[in-house]
Amino acid sequence: MTTDAELPGPEAEAPTGAAPFQQYDEPVAFQDLVGQTHAAAELNPDAEAVLSVDNLRMYFPIKTALMRRTVGHVQAVDGVSFEVPKGGSLGLVGESGCGKSTTGQLITRLYKPTGGSMLFEGADLATMSEGTLKPLRREIQMIFQDPYSSLNPRHTVGAIVGAPLRIHNVVPKNKVLSRVQELLEVVGLNPEHYNRYPNEFSGGQRQRIGIARALALQPKLMVADEPVSALDVSIQAQVINLLQDLQKEFGIAFLFIAHDLAVVRHFCPEVAVMYLGKIVEIGDRASIYSNAHHPYTQALLSAVPDIKQAATGGRRERIRLTGDVPSPIDPPSGCRFRTRCPIAQEICTRHEPPLLQIGKRHKVACHFPGRLGAHPREPITARLLGVDTTGAPDPGASPATDLRQQPGYADTWFDLDAKSIGRA
Amino acid sequence: MTSVEGNEPYLKVTDLTVRFPTADGLVQAVTDLSYGVDLGKTLGIVGESGSGKSVSSMAVLGLHDRRSAQIDGSIVVGGTEVVGLSEDKMRSLRGNSVAMIFQDALAALHPFYKIGKQLSEAYLVHHKGATKREARARAIEMLDRVGIPQPDRRVDNYPHQFSGGMRQRAMIAMGLINNPSLLIADEPTTALDVTVQAQILDLLQDLQREFNSAVIIITHDLGVVAEMADDVLVMYGGRAVEYGPCKDILTHPEMPYTWGLLSSVPDVSADTNARMIPIPGNPPSLLAPPTGCAFHPRCVHASKVQGDLCRTTLPELLPGVRGENHLKRCHLANPDAIYEAEVLPEIAPEIMEGGLR
């Protein structure tokens, strides 16, 4: 590869602390700038799933120092099911340690899952061998959080972005450079800068390099693990708009992992909320952000500082979650959120709540699902689980048999208001 | 604690300029910065990385290397001039009436010493007569105050045994152990999850109410500012570009940089038609700052100013159209009208439909 051997040209002078170049040479007018942005992404309810994850589990063994005996497991991801629609995006949110990044790494097969399946275009990624997986790796690419540690400082931008092209042999060797330059242009970088090194670029520009690398193989699915959280606020919006551009132009599906609920709301029409290795609530944007039924989702949303608060002054009443997330090595029995839950009852200790579909595109895993301040007094799941209201076995009840989680949404669901089965 | 005379704010910074000589030349990190914070009030300082927000507040504690950093102007803390103060006197002030909370609690706590030891050290330094036993009791009391469970056992833990939120709490406890009148929190919640962030912000507010301290909160999160601050100072390229009451700045900003900050963050309750409008380009180099207004190369409203005033002349920090308290550094003649007519419909369509606040 020629770009590797080439020394940096005279234009690649030492960085002066400023960005070596600006993405906009002339100040653009405000209306033009608005024209380059996107409103929040919309849901296409008829899109097929490009990725269908079913009951995915990842247990990391804990080994003793001396004998390498396994003494326990970190249950990082424990039975997660979801679908990513073709050309759409699913957001994955939760606190640190909830398993959202591990889920992303499982889908890119940086880890081999302990159990479950990940169907990508009919092929199960979870059980595939390295050899059969390699051609599929082209279809699933990853954008990393930290633009400083995810680019090799001793490789030029051309070598970094060209590496996937060479590894997968998608273009002839003499065409690699022109393809790299095309890619740099697509992500808003100057194509002349292919022989510069990452340290000559600012954080936002480095993230663009990472995006160009992920884009090189024209993937169908991108796993974006906190792609903007390391960037300055003004740069975050640049990168989000770029990702929206790419999604529209190339029809790429995104699994968007982030802890910033506002950014996820803008980028993803569908969101899954994770807590301690499990999905506690999943649904479309309106279900999660304006109609959350799980106390954890409600607590997360009420904790987000709100700029609009300035208009009224002071702070809102919020749901105060006490304590820290329990250890995933020894998670609480029953519902994992019960130790911090403001509405937990006896049944929560005894039984894990099933992820119940309660709306057209809305599932929640709670014994007492309800809007904020209107959670039911009696567990609505008791009959389904075949127990009484405290969670003790009820000999007269007949437990529902079809409670196993499905990756997608069913046509019928449990209507909370009517306490009966609803239909689309 | 020193008493404050008259109506002077507890902390008063006047024309502060901080320069650092580097191999590439003189970096002017902060230029002609002035602000004040009263006891019991909170000032929020916002800006991008490199805007000088941390450098200016570190100068208040005299944390810059005196051999290299060139500091001009005046910083008065509770009646004491800090600029040029001897290291001995600075020491008696630091951690006593002025304290700081840092962003990265793991880096700010010493990994070799127990939490309790680090807390009681801060107490013993400023209470010469106190015994170790008293200092330990005080450390436990403070850990309890910031909401660490079983403080009498946790006091003997090392920092790595604490979770991220608990470390931040321990650092707040350390900062507050001598009841400081001025607390500077530099990105106190940036590394934390939203639920823990909410806990820490609640804690800071409770403690401020209890001790009536002046608080400076440095952040890039405008949501945090909206919930915590009484006044806001927006910094760009080492200068104050907008300064005034929090409510006024966030609802009627008059400087295109503040508009850019507001429009580039989405809101959890915004209309789904709202856009995330970035600020084009990158923050400027402080080695060779742009001529005129430092923001003009990235400003999308510069064309609305006559001639090339933005490129040639630095605007003064002057009261805007909304009153004496709201200062802005911009040539635009009618910023409020432009904001309402152009920016607001794009970033908050729901407000336009329902009429203005």
Q: What is the gist of this entry?
A:
With 424 residues, chain A is α/β, with parallel strands linked by helices. Chain A has 14 helices and 14 strands.
Outline the structure in words.
Chain A has 424 residues and is an alpha/beta fold. Chain A has a domain at 49-274: Rossmann fold, CATH 3.40.50. In chain A, 27% of the residues lie in helices and 20% in strands. Chain A has helices at 2-5, 30-35, 100-107, 130-137, 157-167, 176-186, 203-215, 233-250, 261-267, 285-289, 295-303, 309-312, 346-350, 382-385; strands spanning 49-63, 70-85, 89-93, 115-120, 123-124, 140-143, 221-225, 253-257, 270-275, 278-284, 356-359, 362-364, 412-415, 420-423. In chain A, strand 13 (412-415) and strand 14 form a beta hairpin. In chain A, helix 5 packs parallel to helix 7 and helix 7 packs parallel to helix 8. Chain A is globular and about 75 Å long. With 357 residues, chain B is of the alpha/beta class. Among the domains of chain B are: 106-179, no CATH class; 252-353, no CATH class. Helices cover 35% and strands 22% of the residues of chain B. Chain B has an eight-stranded mixed β-sheet with strand order 6-7-8-3-9-10-12-11, sandwiched between helices. In chain B, strand 1 (11-22) and strand 2 form a beta hairpin. In chain B, helix 4 (115-126) packs across helix 5 (132-145), helix 4 (115-126) packs parallel to helix 7 and helix 11 packs parallel to helix 13 (335-347). The longest helix of chain B is centred in the middle third of the chain and has 18 residues, at 194-211. The radius of gyration of chain B is 22 Å and the shape is globular. Chains A and B meet through helix 2, helix 8, helix 9, helix 11 and helix 12 of A and helix 7, helix 8, helix 9, helix 10 and helix 11 of B.
Secondary-structure map:
The complex is a heterodimer of chains A (424) and B (357).
Chain A: H1 2-5, H2 30-35, E1 49-63, E2 70-85, E3 89-93, H3 100-107, E4 115-120, E5 123-124, H4 130-137, E6 140-143, H5 157-167, H6 176-186, H7 203-215, E7 221-225, H8 233-250, E8 253-257, H9 261-267, E9 270-275, E10 278-284, H10 285-289, H11 295-303, H12 309-312, H13 346-350, E11 356-359, E12 362-364, H14 382-385, E13 412-415, E14 420-423
Parallel strand pairs in A: 3-8, 3-9, 6-7, 7-8
Antiparallel strand pairs in A: 1-2, 1-4, 4-5, 9-10, 10-12, 11-12, 13-14
Helix pairs in contact in A: 5-6, 5-7, 6-7, 7-8
Chain B: E1 11-22, E2 25-37, E3 42-46, H1 53-60, E4 70-77, E5 80-81, H2 87-93, E6 98-101, H3 105-108, H4 115-126, H5 132-145, H6 151-154, H7 164-176, E7 182-186, H8 194-211, E8 214-219, H9 222-228, E9 231-236, E10 239-245, H10 246-251, H11 256-264, H12 309-312, E11 318-320, E12 323-328, H13 335-347, H14 349-353
Parallel strand pairs in B: 3-8, 3-9, 6-7, 7-8
Antiparallel strand pairs in B: 1-2, 1-4, 4-5, 9-10, 10-12, 11-12
Helix pairs in contact in B: 4-5, 4-7, 5-7, 7-8, 11-13
